[in-house]
């Protein structure tokens, strides 16, 4: 009797421990499931935020580069026709300068943006005269007249992305004349004998209108390069005594923030 009572109590204790162990396992599993679910939710939130952070918006940037400028028009052609009678004694050369300033890129639609800017830009033209006598070439005598024009360019460009990174641009540009001095230099045998600047700003139009266009590449790091051409529409002489327009080739480096 005592043996059966002992085994009965032992069986009851076994059932009790089994029930407690099962409940404990169920409780552990119940706590593990929410913890795992929480981690999954945290990952899904980060996955949603990542594309939003990579979405492009309005940007500002800096641009600087080289100008190679010249004049074109009936007056310039007349000068060159007249220079033909000097047996090469007078020639026209491109003038080098620089440009630098700020711009803003404003997205309008996928692959299309508007880019206004403000840049300091050097333009002008150069005439070089030499003695048209071979017997005097050893003198290396030269007279140079250079129009040194400084403008504040305000372009409003439309940009179209052709492929990722590569784009084309075009648009109108207003240029406000800041200064215009003609520098006359003369020398021989490698020595400068004469140099003087003449202020001629008052004889030129204060605003020049042009169209500009070109192409470029913008890297995802913010660094970009571009090349363009400014085609002047306005006659430079405000008194209409001669017809000449600005022509400028530009090469630029830029950085977008």
Automatic annotation (TrEMBL):
<dbReference type="InterPro" id="IPR011250">
    <property type="entry name" value="OMP/PagP_B-barrel"/>
</dbReference>
<protein>
    <submittedName>
        <fullName>Porin family protein</fullName>
    </submittedName>
</protein>
<dbReference type="Pfam" id="PF13568">
    <property type="entry name" value="OMP_b-brl_2"/>
</dbReference>
<keyword id="KW-0732">Signal</keyword>
<dbReference type="InterPro" id="IPR025665">
    <property type="entry name" value="Beta-barrel_OMP_2"/>
</dbReference>
<feature type="signal peptide">
    <location>
        <begin position="1"/>
        <end position="26"/>
    </location>
</feature>
<feature type="domain" description="Outer membrane protein beta-barrel">
    <location>
        <begin position="50"/>
        <end position="237"/>
    </location>
</feature>
